[in-house]
Amino acid sequence: MALDPNFAVPWTEMQYGTREQYAHLGAAFEQHARGALVDNLINLLGLLKGPTLGYQCDRYSHSLQSGTRAYRNDESVDMVVAALLHDIADGFAPENHSDAAAALLRPYVDDETHWVVKHHGLFQGYYYFHHHDGDRNARDQYQDSPYYDRCVDFCHEYDQNCFDPNYPVMDIEDFRPMLDEVLSRPSRVPGVAPLPG
Ligand SMILES: [Fe+2]
Ligand SMILES: [Fe+2]
Predict the structure, then answer these.
(1) Ligand 1 center to residue 174 CA distance, Å?
(2) Is 123 exposed, middle or buried (0-12, 13-18, 19+ CB in 10 A)?
């Protein structure tokens, strides 16, 4: 559908829209959202640059290390993208960054990858919850999940060990073809509203 860049609806309240207008709005938003998504995510990941919060590297480097290790370990493109983006929500959803990242990836990645990202924060707690007087084995409530072992491995191989400022990471642009592949897939989530509103 060729879109008229000068098109604008004559109304200011969605309740007055027509089917034809919404067809145009839907196509315009789809084109924009799809076209800008990877750049937006890369920019969002860039918010993690800077503060190291007491670690030896910032969370941007942590993210690149995670994605790089997953890539070098011949993980699926879903898992590489998930590793790169697993902490992308740190800057705007600090209380539930795992849930937020999983929701972001949900339309595009397989069930296992989504599950791993959604639960990685709790599973990662194995390495430190007990130092906060918590239960490091809290993740065992998910022992019956078919993805339990995968999430254990993800945290061990691509998360808890990714705080090394000297690890040779890939450049963010090296990940772009993988981001393009995953994020250009048709949405797996049915019934999602295609418009901002
Ligand atoms: Fe995390
Ligand atoms: Fe992490």
Answers:
(1) 22
(2) buried
**0.85 exceeded by pTM:** yes
Going from the Cα of 125 to the center of ligand 1, the distance in angstroms, rounded, reads 10
Can you tell me the distance from the alpha carbon of 36 to that of 182, in angstroms, rounded to the nearest whole number?
A: 14
Residue by residue, DSSP assigns 124-180 as: HGGGTGGGGTS-TTGGGGGTTSTTHHHHHHHHHHHTTT---TTS-PPPGGGGHHHHH
Q: What domains appear along the chain, each with residue ranges and CATH number?
A: 44-183 (1.10.3210.10)
Residues of the chain with pLDDT under 70: 1, 191-197
Ligand located closest to 89 CA: 1
Cα distance between residue 154 and residue 98, in whole Å: 13
